[in-house]
Amino acid sequence: MNAKNKSPRKTANGAAHAGAKVYFNARLVDPSSNRDEPGGIVIKDGVIADIGPHLRRNAPEGAEVVDCKGHVLAPGLIDAQVYTGEPGNEHRETLKTASQAAAAGGVTTIVVMPDTNPVIDQVALVDFIQRRARDNAVVHVHTMAAATKGLKGEEITEIGLLKRAGAIAFSNGKSSIANTRVMRNALLYGRDFDALIAHHTEDPYLSQNASMNAGEVATRLALPGVSKAAETILLERDVRLVEMTKGRYHAATISCAESLEVVRAAKVHSLPVTCGVSINHLTLNENDIGPYRTFFKLRPPLRRDEDRVAMIRGLGSGEIDIIVSSHDPQDADDKRRPFAEATDGAVGLETLLPAALRLHHSGELPLLTIFRALTVNPAKLLGLDAGRLIKGAVADVILVDLGQPWVVNKDELRSRSKNTPFDESKMQGRVLRTLVAGNTVYQYGGAERA
Amino acid sequence: MTSAAAKVEALHFPHRHLLTCEGLSATEINFLLDLADKAADANRQPGNRRDVLRGRTLINLFFEASTRTQASFELAAKRLCADVLNMNVSTSSVQKGETLLDTAMTLNAMRPDIIVVRHHSAGAVELLSQKVDCSVVNAGDGAHQHPTQALLDALTIRRAKGRLSGLLVAICGDILHSRVARSNINVLNALGARVRIIAPSTLLPAASERLGAEVFTDMWKGVEDADVIMMLRLQRERMLGSYVPSTREYFHFFGLDHEKLTRARPDALIMHPGPMNRGVEIASTVADHSRSVIHDQVEMGVAVRMAVLEALARNLPN
Fold this sequence. Notes:
The complex is a heterodimer. Chain A is α/β, with parallel strands linked by helices.
């Protein structure tokens, strides 16, 4: 098409780009190189062979071309906290359905959590996940292995052998390690293997039976609440243990301003501490629970709006490193119960990016900041060679229409479970196409796996 | 003995008790090793009894179960013609609630010449030694000290290598709970050997780099070019998730197998204070390797204990 424009190296390019695919006329957004400019990319053999403004209009000869029509080309998202039901609860979600939901949401790498049945606490189970993912998943799947056997918080797992088998990090899943000595040992032992310990921080004694954030709303609803101190107390303890052991530590999902203070102080002291926040805690607050809406029952619970605003501030300042979907499929039977009896969790893979873009459209966060927390930061944290839109990188790429308005319909979600807090919500921004290693695994309104 | 002050040191072990290796000089240690060396040779001859402890009484007071150390001390004492009394803790007054100090004073009233003590608490032997009039030998106090073990290890190495000075000794395993490691670090440093300690961080004590050894958490690096690899026993209750996740993982990363052995010098000695957990801290075939001196250690144990008893007996009043 536009390749007729003269270029001194046209013939050389033409030969080099045989079998290549060119995405031109795009807005390139890549936090790893601080790039936000018009341009295009060339994908060959699953790798980004070329990138830059020179590809805005000019597609090299011999290449297949895709007109991006000015939409955003960004690195595929990396979601570091995804619960599935495989193995053990496949009726909620399998690796396959989770990966399809991920692809539709522009997520090209998911990290699955060890809270399965059986728990991923053995080498053979890490291997099982990897084999199942290889055979069934359309996006990259990595395994977060259990930090303690059976997630019981009593005995540390074979961190060395699990890491060698491919476990990308270690977590106690949805439960916290209450025993300080065990947490110390996990960090200390993990340090010998440069293992990352990701921890859900919630004091199990303070949060016992709690079903939402303690405060006025909980009191009016007469629901047992948990103070945010339950989160901060354990986080403070963990930071002290990191100081003592120098083990790599990640607070999985913080949810209140006080926790942000703790992380900030740890970072000021150059401790190996990072933290994440779930998309829900950036876009929702406890008032959304309204008349006992159980699809807003989450862990950590939705907090006051001041806390949500603090989370956005933390992302802006870089004190919060990553955003996760905390995708947690639950079937309707477990959700449609009296609030206190309903299970926690919400699906989120397909709404992660559109929900995050709310912060862009509202002017609360720059686009690059949002993408940074969804791409290069999780890649760095997890040691993944991904999340970067640069020459030579694996072509995990998404094409996003930032402006397209749409309304979430839970029945259209690819996830096997439909427990989204965003049902019937208005969104602005939609993933048009998702590439994994150069292959289209999702295309909006079109045939998948083109 | 009093004629030449310079000679006194070489012919004499100037202590009433043997409680710790910390602070022992190279001269004192070599004096004991020389004595033990002769005893070891003599032990290989028939009719090897000497009567330097004739008429002396030795009490073996073991508050913690032990087979080999107790037997070793008993045999050493009997080869020197001492009268030996083994105090069996399970039938002793300790079970009836007597305190350590009351036990000490009761035994003291029986006027023994030497008491050999093992106790599960660090410092207990030292405490006991303050309350008795006889000599006391520490046969292990908690994770603190086990002096005769370090001496027998030094003798084993010296007989195999001809020296200790300049050798690189890697001690690997549960350093945190090990009296063997602490005692060995003292003796090896005094004799001019270089010491490395190797363990997962959960089995290293705080400030372990201050003990006089290089610290490694990667065994492949830690045994690199070692002249001696000394493996430590991992207690069963520490294997399952509290300090290390499993025996499988421990063996993979910290067990001495042929692969890790190839990183050491080709003539490296393989040592273990026993009792061994084959397949946990040491591969069975490595334990039985031609370079394994594990059985020599047991033999040297008797000789070293004879030397210690003889040296202390020389200082006893008649």
